[in-house]
Amino acid sequence: MRGLQEALDAAADDPASPAWDLIWQESCHQGTCDPASAVLLPWSARTCANFSPQDRERGVVLAGFIAVDADDKSRGLYAGDIATLRALTLECLASGGSSDTMFVYLQQAVLGFDGDEVWGKELDRINDGEVDVQCPACAEDLLVDLQSGDSSIEPGLSAQLATRLHAEALRVGHESVATSLTYLFGRMTCPVCGVTFNLADEVTGSPR
User: Fold this and answer.
1) Which of 14, 105, 108, 152 is most deeply buried (CB count within 10 A of its CB)?
2) What does each C-alpha distance from 1 to 8, 12, 13, 174 come to in angstroms?
3) Where are the domains of the chain?
């Protein structure tokens, strides 16, 4: 590829094109997207609208990452495109997604379009299968298993958002995602000092 425009043209013609890799590399670095990449949102909306729900998955996930890191001015300027991309992503979710992992990325993309700067970036910790947190009482560093369920976690849904995400996963048969959500949004007892806390609060650094 000689340039980004050539990559955009190739990607728009083929959802499986390797050009998508170049677009990702140009847009996002180490989990953060360049705010200037927001100029790609109109292109993303047009391109993804031409693909089937399964074929557009990768495109809307990228757009979600771009949207959540866009500045307020860009989010306002491209509000219509963001709304279109959100609707297209909801269609992907309704069709079930191509895998558990992709389903989580699609849920995260919707949150990115909504401007949720926490879970629009952090929800994919579920795909990692584990999360590092620090006990708010004794400051012990803890590695928590989100797949098989840590024995110190009391599963739950500690936020309205968690309830929504859990219901979405169950609705289309992603039971393992739903279970992992109950761990991520459950309550954990520190194995060192015995204090119980909401795990999600420590993942996001929310004030207690």
Assistant:
1) 108
2) 10, 14, 15, 38
3) 4-117, 125-204
Q: How far apart are CA 155 and CA 67, in angstroms?
A: 31
Evaluated on CA atoms 154, 168, 61, 207, the torsion sign reads: negative
Residue 30: pLDDT band (50, 70, 90) is confident
| pLDDT tens figures, 105-150 | 999 999 999 999 999 999 999 999 999 999 999 999 999 999 876 6
